[in-house]
Amino acid sequence: MYPPRIFAIVLRVLYLIRESPARILPLVIWVAMDIILWGFLSRYLNSVTSGFNLIPALLGAVLLWDFFGRVMQGVTTAFFEDVWSRNFLNMFATPLSISEYVSGLVLASVATSSVGLVVMLILATVVFGLSFFLYGALVIPFVLVLFLSGIAMGIFGISIVLRYGPAAEWLVWPIPALLSPFVGVFYPLATLPRWMQVIARVLPPSYVFEELRGIVHHHGASFIGLLIAFLLAIGYVLLAAWTFTRIFQHAVRTGLIARYSAESVN
């Protein structure tokens, strides 16, 4: 891989954001609204219950799950910009390789999701008093697992769109909502039926939220759970990259990539 080509992909995304307020506002507005809504809900629930502070449990979970969603959307949105502008084919008229292109999307996601994370942390800390010191140093590897999981889901998402056409983007946006019941963002996995628990055990975010609940309830976190989550996340990233590469090769071999348009959904 040639780093300047990867940086060029990132730079293109940053130029698009810089020149368009319509692209800047979604980076902060939606995450801010989520933190404000759940922050006041947590504060209200604290006022009608006693003995347990719900702000770390609810608001912390919302913050981390929003971060996962923003990472995934950072990858998919950067790809969709090329699709919407009919620029995807132009990218590969250059010496750019598929690995360089995907790496550029990932780094662009790092930049955009970091902005949202900072906004969420500031609001949650200053307005609602959420302190991540409660979680200790373990919050760093847990955030890393969510980041890797978001990258994997983002690459899977753009693979779907590459295979079935731009109209398939509507299959991508609901992915975080479809996963959330299985990963136990707000409740222990033990509350799920057995078949949902089986699915949850192969999703890295489920280990993150389960272990963080243990920290909030002063039960501690399991190193084994963290290790399983990290290995699963790495595995999904590799599988997603392999899937995207195979679909791209299929699109080139069959000529689908030359017909890439909003109508190419078959």
Keywords summarizing the entry:
single chain, 266 residues, mainly alpha, 10 helices
Structure overview:
- The chain has 266 residues and is mostly helical.
- The protein has one domain (3-259).
- The protein is 73% helix and 0% strand.
- The protein contains ten helices and no strands.
- It has helices at 3-18, 21-48, 54-84, 88-91, 98-126, 139-164, 175-183, 194-200, 204-216, 223-254.
- α1 crosses α5, α2 packs across α5 (98-126) and α3 (54-84) packs parallel to α6.
- The radius of gyration is 20 Å and the shape is globular.
- The protein starts with a helix and ends in a 12-residue tail after the last helix.
- The model is unreliable at 261-266 (pLDDT under 50).
Question: What's the helix and strand layout?
Answer:
Elements: H1 3-18, H2 21-48, H3 54-84, H4 88-91, H5 98-126, H6 139-164, H7 175-183, H8 194-200, H9 204-216, H10 223-254
Helix pairs in contact: 1-5, 2-3, 2-5, 3-5, 3-6, 6-9, 6-10, 9-10
Report the biggest beta sheet as strand number plus sense, adding barrel if it closes: none
* First and last CA, distance: 32 Å
Mean pLDDT: 83
In DSSP terms (H or I, runs of 4 or more residues), the helix count works out at 10
H/E element order: HHHHHHHHHH
Q: How many separate structural domains?
A: 1
